Amino acid sequence: MKALIFAAGKGTRLKPFTDHHPKALALVNGISLLERNILYLKSFGINDFVINIHHFGEQILEFLKKNNNFNCNIEISDETNELLETGGGLIFARRFLDHGEDFLIMNADILTTLNINDLVKYHKKIKDFATLAVSDRESSRKLLFNEEMVLRGWLNVQTGEQRLAEFNRGFKSLAFSGVHCINPTIFEKIKRTGKFSVMEEYLDLMQTEHIHGFLHDSILVDVGKPESVKIAEKYFK
């Protein structure tokens, strides 16, 4: 199985580090987020990676070369000309991923102990084109699921804004973990082009398609702000 790691973002919340470096190279106890996630996924037998780059992308290329790609097969989806966000980045990387096999997507700034094997097993069992890892944790935005853990909506916790596929019958509100398991049939379903968020596409597709959530209670830290680095350092040595 291949894994696409989103490492292209500008990481504005991680300033001042990202004024001179890509967020994927931010250090947690002296080890970069990118290295941690490559080794984390390798521990589940994943050795084939696609990494998208944009912001200080040359530093990521240099880092990978210096570490001999961590003895993995790594392909680069180079968005130097235009940052395409998660949805546009996925479409841009299609040539590396659309080969009939399920693949993983992971945000470079997420650190987690989620059992990838359990996520993949669940994804293959339900046979959706997308399975989203979710957990019950604090987040400004939540995804809403019915009793069968099918995606039915989205909620902005701060403003109360909602997007619903149907009337909210006590849906579970859960935070997206930045990890999803995908079947390449998604490329035939996505309608947007250019620069867009894959979550926007999921929220459109939930009207007509089944997108399941995989509920987990693993440690997860979104290393998006300088203060979250300190939190991550408590859990990831």
Report what the structure shows.
This protein is an alpha/beta fold. Helix content is 27%, strand content 28%. The strands form three sheets. Strands 1, 4, 5, 6, 8, 9, 10, 11, 12 and 13 form a ten-stranded mixed beta sheet that branches. A two-stranded antiparallel ribbon has the order 2-3. Helix 3 (85-92) packs across helix 7 (198-205). The model has no long low-confidence stretch (mean pLDDT 96).
Q: What is the terminal separation in angstroms?
A: 27 Å
Shape: globular
The largest sheet, given as strand count, sense and whether it forms a barrel, is: 10 strands, mixed
Count the E strands. Answer: 14
- What is the overall number of helices? 8
Structural class: alpha/beta
The Cα radius of gyration reads 17 Å
List low-confidence stretches.
none
Task: Name the helicity range.
Answer: 25-40%
- Mean of residue pLDDT? 96
How much beta, percentage-wise? 25-35%
Order of helices and strands: EEEHEHEHHEEHEEEEEHHEEH
Question: Tags for this entry?
Answer:
single chain, 237 residues, alpha/beta, 10-stranded mixed beta sheet, two-stranded antiparallel ribbon, globular
SSE layout:
Blueprint (H helix, E strand, L loop, with lengths): L1 E5 L20 E2 L2 E2 H10 L5 E6 L3 H10 L6 E6 L6 H8 L1 H4 L5 E5 L2 E3 L3 H11 L3 E6 L5 E5 L5 E6 L5 E3 L7 E11 L3 H4 L8 H8 L6 E4 L4 E3 L3 H10 L2
Parallel strand pairs: 1-4, 1-6, 4-5, 8-13
Antiparallel strand pairs: 2-3, 6-12, 7-14, 8-12, 9-10, 9-12, 10-11
Helix pairs in contact: 3-7
